[in-house]
Input
Amino acid sequence: MKRTRIVITGVGLTAPNGNSLQEFRQNLLDGKAGIQNMEIRYMGMQHAGICDYDALRYQKKKEVRVGTRAGSIAIYCANEALADSRIDFEAAEKDRVGIYIGCTEHGNVETENEIYNISKFDYDTKYWSHYHNPRTVANNPAGETSLNLGITGPAYTIGAACAAGNMGLIHASQMLRLGEVDVAICGGISESIRTFGIYAGFKSQNALATHEDPNKASRPFDVDRNGIVISEGGALYTLERLEDAQARGAKIYGEIGGYHVNSDASDYVLPNPTRQAQCVRKALKNAELEAKDIHIVNTHATATPLGDIQECEAIRAVFGEGCPDTSINNTKSYIGHCMGAAGALELAGNLPSFEDLTVHPTINVDNLDPKCDLPGLVLNQPRKVAKVDTILNNSFGMLGINSTLIVRRFVP
Output
């Protein structure tokens, strides 16, 4: 049976190094990272990817105060994605619009803040905010977005650890194909730098990056890599069925080609390269492609010593000693690990390659780890290529969830 074609018609994002696709992409090509030092409660100064978007562009001051950082990021990205798509949103049937937002975790920030606040009053819970419950429910970012835009269709979050950004797009594609909605706003968001718990957790695992220069702290594939730089951010997309997008003459960024999701079922945090390779292979099968047909592989690599090696092992298992037209890169070297937003932002950073035929590099690789020396790896300088028809985006997460999403150049 012929599969309904799903296309990307709008992109809205905020990243530590850019608040629009154009700015973000240019900084990736220019090698400009966006990591700073930030005071983290109980932890002191730590590296962080901090976004600097205009929250008041789409919200009032009271709405920002009552809501959450995650909700605010989602609202900004959703409005930007809709504006970019040029849908006549006023005329749209709001119950036929779906919101599917991936996130790593939600609620920790608000709970930590409330406990800290009542500690100043001898833990008297009468000082606990009455906004706490709506702020901490898992569906908060999608719910705040639905309130902001007046969307009455399905609006919920997808908890998939650091695979969540890909999962937002995958789930939205499925809902469009099922006919549940006509327009989907989807992708991933993260507010992770606002919680000390995630910093403390990674530090206890010896997985928190340190470097005298914050912008060089995230260094996937480098021999001296020593952990993750935690970041916030968001990237949401407008997805539509092809016939609907063509009927209104929409600009099309790309087409959802294929995807797969599986689980390691082997460890809480250590990745399983066999299962990761299986995920990539099944995504290729779903897209009716072979490894040699992929032009860009965006790696998940987070700059942990073992995790990068495991993913490289998985990529070698699929791509062998290299495919002549396949380039491999990484975006976390610029922006750190945006957790639930990672996959969605990393896809956005590569989408313009369909037009400019340029692959952005992995930066901060001064001494390539031989165990991460993949054929086709693009390091430190952009690479001009003859053709970009396919992008394969890997996103993997704790508790062994793996996702691979393939986007094709749109061909009518």
